[in-house]
Amino acid sequence: MSIMNNPNDIKNDNRGISLIEILIVISIMVILSGVFMLTTTVATDKQVNSCANKIVSSIEQTRSITLGKQSGYIVISQGVGETVKCQMYINGAYPYGTAYSDQVTIGHQGLTVTVNKHSGSAPLAGTSAVVSFSRSNGSVTDSDNVESIVVSNGRRSITITIDKFTGKVSKGPVVIL
């Protein structure tokens, strides 16, 4: 005996979907979009934080090398729409020092680095910033008068401050824009 003897015996139930089914689908979509947004936020925060950590590390390394050498400075640059790079120099004032390191990529595309100087602030895109240190006490002696560096991805930013008198570098918290 067959379950379906006659195709006309199939019950036509075309009432549509219930309110419960709609609510379940919407709640699943909300949960998935929340997970996606959280993952995206964490990934972009890591890029900003990683670039800021590398800038701080590079500046501190240049300062400590300068204390044992003749003089030294670091050049942080970013081409328009390109990655953030840095290079350390020793034994000479800018731009005549000897390269101590190769140019190293410290930030991804999509990040904006802004340099705050006594004269104002400007994005680093297409230019470079130079931070020089005194051999005697590690203080900042640069002609650019860099006060702080801001790393941002448009939604999050981190400010790196450089104490002019001591050369101490400090990184602030992530700020949501």
Task: Considering the chains and any ligands shown, give keywords for the structure.
single chain; about 180 residues; alpha+beta; minor pseudopilin epsh fold; six-stranded antiparallel sheet; five-stranded antiparallel sheet; about 30% helix
Name the quaternary structure. single chain
The coarse silhouette is elongated
Counted beta strands: 11
Q: What is the CA-atom radius of gyration, in angstroms? A: 28 Å
**What's the CATH C level?**
Alpha Beta
* Fourth CATH level, the homologous superfamily: minor pseudopilin epsh domain
Question: What's the story with the biggest beta sheet?
Answer: 6 strands, antiparallel
Helix/strand/pairing category: alpha+beta
Tell me the β content.
Answer: 25-35%
Please, how many domains?
1
Low-confidence stretches: none
Head-to-tail CA distance between termini: 71 Å
How large is the count of helical segments? 1
Look up the CATH topology: minor pseudopilin epsh fold
Q: Could you give the order of the helices and strands?
A: HEEEEEEEEEEE
Q: Which architecture name does CATH use?
A: 3-Layer(bab) Sandwich
Q: Overall mean pLDDT score?
A: 81
- Could you estimate the helical fraction of the residues in percent? 25-40%
